[in-house]
Amino acid sequence: MKDTEQGVRLEKDGKVIVEVIWLNKNGENGQHYDIKIPENGKEIFIEVKSTKEYRKTQFEVSREQWKFLKENGDKYYIYRVYGARTKNAKLEKIPNPAKLWKEEKIEAYPICIVL
Amino acid sequence: MSGRGGMHGNRVCPHCLEYFNVEECRLKVIRGELYTICPYCDETIKKLKNFPPEERERLLRREHDFDHDLRNLFRKDKIEDINDVYLKTNDAKDYLHNIFEGGEAEDSLDSFLFQKDPFIKKLQKIKKAEGEKAEKEQRKVRVEASKEAEAERGKKPVEMKKTKSEKGETEKGISTRGILVETKEKGWIQEISPEEAPIRVEKYTPEEVKEREITEKEVKSSDKKSVTKSQSTGDRTRSEGLREEAKKIGQWGEKYAFRCIKDEMMKNILIPL
Q1: Could you tell me where the beta strands, DSSP code E, fall in B146-240?
Q2: Which residue in A25, A52, A91 is closest to B200 by CB distance?
Q3: Is the pLDDT of residue B111 over 50?
Q4: Which residues in chain B are contacts of A89 at CB distance < 8 A?
Q5: Domain boundary among B72, B90, B116
Q6: B202 and A58: CB-CB below 8 Å?
Q7: Who has the most CB within 10 Å: A85, B18, B76, B88?
Q8: In CATH, what is the architecture of A2-102?
């Protein structure tokens, strides 16, 4: 495993097996996701949402992120980090949030008004 | 009897026999007792306690107001130093000016206050002790910081200052590297670095959320809570401080998530997301 400028890469016999690109590794990137994993010709997008609380508080998703996650369906993950900055931190993977939303397994509260 | 200013005032100076108004006189403090200074001959006239009852009562009332005012300010922690007494005790300003700015006071304002009110005396002692403690702490932090800077220059590994809770953790064998020094910053500080936080990864189970009701209170409170740096259209009215903290939490979360992914890569070679 090799650390790269943008993340980490796993290589075998000089061939890249998997690569993880952490877009904000060197500062805020402004993309609609934080981590990208190119894999078998497709890309996985991960958006990390963190709170210091352990309980399931709400978190905000920007309009662009919302649009992007709907467009990318099962290629999009939300990694929910609870207890950030504590030794009891925990990560919860939420795959395909758009699908979960359509199936009413998660809820979204839109607050944006456009005139 | 007529004074230089005519029949003016309610007292007579026993030295120069001039009339004067006690309330307009400068006062003098000697060993915690108040004296009046004659405006004509500058002689010390009488102790406050020897004034006629009605006059004494009036002056004592004024004294009481002053003490009460000052006591409240101390209680509310509005008095930082002696200058604040002048700035903030408006009712007592003239009174204090007469005594202390007139250059007649033999005692300092501090000692005057000490003798005036045991409550203030106690508060001052506490404040002094607190001040000394804070100064000691600051010195300690400065020494730590300079050691740190020296070590940084010498490319030596640095062990950061340990807080009480960290000491407990060290005893249990958990490394303290990366843990922030306790700061005056209000709110929440970093307990552990994302590189050291134990890895815990769970798969999301929708049922839990489905069963859970999001209360109106939670909806409101969550607006104020820290969220990740990823939000770009967040509440613009949120204070800069909160935004900064939210950003730090977001960065921490990203590092932690990245580490979790790396850990999975190590375990599985390929990432089963």
Answers
A1: 201-203
A2: A91
A3: yes
A4: 192, 194, 197-198, 200, 256
A5: B116
A6: no
A7: A85
A8: 3-Layer(aba) Sandwich (3.40)
Q: Domain containing B200: what range?
A: 194-273
Split at pLDDT 50, 70, 90, the class of B253 is very high
Which residues face B17 on adjacent strands? none
CA angle at residue B162 from B161 to B165, to 5 degrees?
155
Picking from B84, B116, B148, the residue at the C-terminal end of a domain is B116
Q: Which of A9-13, A92-96, B190-194 has the highest mean pLDDT?
A: A92-96
Partner residue opposite A79 with nearest CB, options B191, B231, B257: B257
Residues of B in contact with A104 (CB under 8 A): 210
Q: Do A48 and B234 touch (CB under 8 A)?
A: no
Min mean pLDDT across A25-39, A60-74, B75-89, B218-232 is at B218-232
Q: Please write the tens of the pLDDT for every residue from B65-75.
A: 555 555 555 55
Q: Do β-strands A42-50 and B33-37 pair in parallel, antiparallel, or remain unpaired? A: unpaired
- From A44, which residue of chain B is nearest by alpha-carbon distance? B273
Name the domain count of chain B: 2
Q: Which of B198, B253, B266 sits opposite A48 (nearest CB)?
A: B253
Q: How far apart are the C-alpha atoms of B9 and B5, rounded to whole Å?
A: 9
- Please give the Cα distance from B157 to B159 (Å, whole number): 7
Average of pLDDT values for B142-165?
54
Q: pTM for this structure?
A: 0.46
Torsion of CA B17, B23, B25, B26, to 10 degrees: 140
Contact B192 A52 (CB under 8 A): no
The ipTM estimated for the assembled molecules is 0.93
* Residue B204 resides in a domain: yes
| Set of chain B residues whose Cβ sits within 8 Å of the Cβ of A90 | 200-202
Q: Which two tokens stand for residue B144?
A: 């730590």
Band of the pLDDT at A98, cuts 50, 70, 90?
Answer: very high
Rounded Cα distance between A17 and B269, Å, is: 8
Where b means 16+ CB within 10 Å and e means fewer, B176-196 reads beebbeeeeeeeeebbbbbeb
